[in-house]
Amino acid sequence: MPASRPIWKGQLRLSLVSIAVELYTATKASAKPSFRQIHEPTGKPVRYEKVVAGVGPVDKDEIMKGFEYEKGDYVLLTNDEIDAVKLETRKTLELTQFVGACEIDPIYFDKPYFVVPADDLAEDAFRVIRDALRASEKVGLGQLALRGKEYLVAVKPTGTGLLLETLHYEAEIRKSDPFFSEISAKKADPELLEVATALIEKKTAPFDAGVFKDHYQSALRELIARKLKSKGRKISTKDEPKEAQPSGSNVVNLMAALKSSLESSSGSRKKAPAKPAPRKKAS
Asked: Of 39, 73, 103, 116, which has the maximum CB count within 10 A?
């Protein structure tokens, strides 16, 4: 079992079958450097106080949650009142619908979590649901109350476990029409399309996340290391290269750029010539 603590414990339910499961975050916050705001003259961190206009700082015990039902007017709720809201999804994740694995538009996906059986007793039934999802190539949908909010979630098999991904509700997604309405529906030039398609085929390969590195985070860590080595003194930073300005006909330039990219891609896939064997020294 992982060293991290589960963020949720409850029942995964499929019809009359209930399985005790635990939920773990699938991403690491520590993978990226985090920064705090620092008061430069003293070198001390900046802290934030809870303040009320005309009153000043207030004690956290005096703070309640409020919903603004009219401008400047709030209905106040205590933590006990909020906790008393009964949602079956607080302790049970029921898979109420199944869809094809590719039917959900990627724009709906939010955060991933690992789902694991809570104990050996739950593992047999857990494996049945996992393998049934895999065999049917379906994703299970349900709702889960987590951290004060009810989420729409999708559950699918991954490795020997299950992956749960929170989904945005439809009301949370912006309509694309205002952004895309001014883009012409005219088809691309057939010759340009042919070269671009060939370039995509040349660069097609199985997905491997390990191939991609976060260069920005690496550069930040390098900057931090250089700053520590210089004992806090200012260090020079390299100027970013200027982007080349476009010139001439866009179609001609685009075709030339695509063809050059295609040739470059083809060359990069060729095997390097074998090095000649070293000559033997005369005895």
From this structure: 116
pTM of the model: 0.70
Among 9, 31, 30, CA closest to 19? 9
Give the number of other CB atoms < 10 A from CB of residue 118: 18
Decide the pairing of beta strands 8-14 and 17-25.
antiparallel
* Alpha carbons within 13 A on the beta-carbon side of 154: 22
Helix or strand run (H / E) with residue 68: strand 65-70
Cα 78 from Cα 85, distance rounded (Å): 12
DSSP letter at 59 equals -
User: Could you identify the residue written with the tokens 């400047």?
Assistant: 72
Give 228's DSSP letter. Answer: H
CA 248, CA 255: separation in Å to the nearest integer?
12
In the chain, what are the domains?
A: 8-26+85-172 (2.40.290.10)
Provide the 3-class DSSP secondary structure of residue 5: coil
Distance between CA atoms of residues 157 and 127, nearest Å: 10
Could you tell me the two tokens for 97?
């619908």
